[in-house]
């Protein structure tokens, strides 16, 4: 009997929906307070997951969701960086 492998699920901090980890983008805050996109999901630090769709990023930007979750100031330019990353990944 083949066992089904459990798919790790993560919750989008912008939309609140649960999705498989591979469909999510991890944003991480280091101990120094720097935030960055974590495509591997393995960087150390406080992480927050966002859905890889433009609507979720727009919601996060409007509500400043990442700043609340990561307890750090997030510039609007960082949200633009996330959008660029998603567009590159989809093409």
From TrEMBL:
TM region positions: none
UniProt domain YlxR: residue ranges: 10-82
Matches recorded under InterPro entries: YlxR, YlxR-like_sf, YlxR_dom
UniProt feature coiled coil, ranges: none
SUPFAM superfamilies on file: YlxR-like (SSF64376)
CDD domains from the UniProt entry: YlxR (cd00279)
PANTHER family cross-referenced by the UniProt entry: BLL0784 PROTEIN, YLXR DOMAIN-CONTAINING PROTEIN
Record's protein name: RNA-binding protein
Organism annotation: Heyndrickxia ginsengihumi
Lineage: Bacteria, Bacillati, Bacillota, Bacilli, Bacillales
């Amino acid at each position: 009997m083949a066992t089904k492998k459990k798919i790790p699920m993560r919750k989008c901090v912008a939309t609140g929906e649960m999705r498989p980890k591979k469909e999510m983008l991890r944003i991480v805050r280091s101990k120094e307070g720097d935030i960055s996109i974590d495509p591997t999901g393995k960087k150390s630090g406080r992480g927050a997951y966002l859905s890889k769709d433009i609507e979720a990023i727009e919601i996060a930007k409007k509500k400043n969701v990442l700043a609340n979750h990561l307890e750090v100031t997030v510039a609007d330019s960082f949200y633009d960086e996330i959008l660029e990353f998603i567009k590159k990944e989809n093409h």
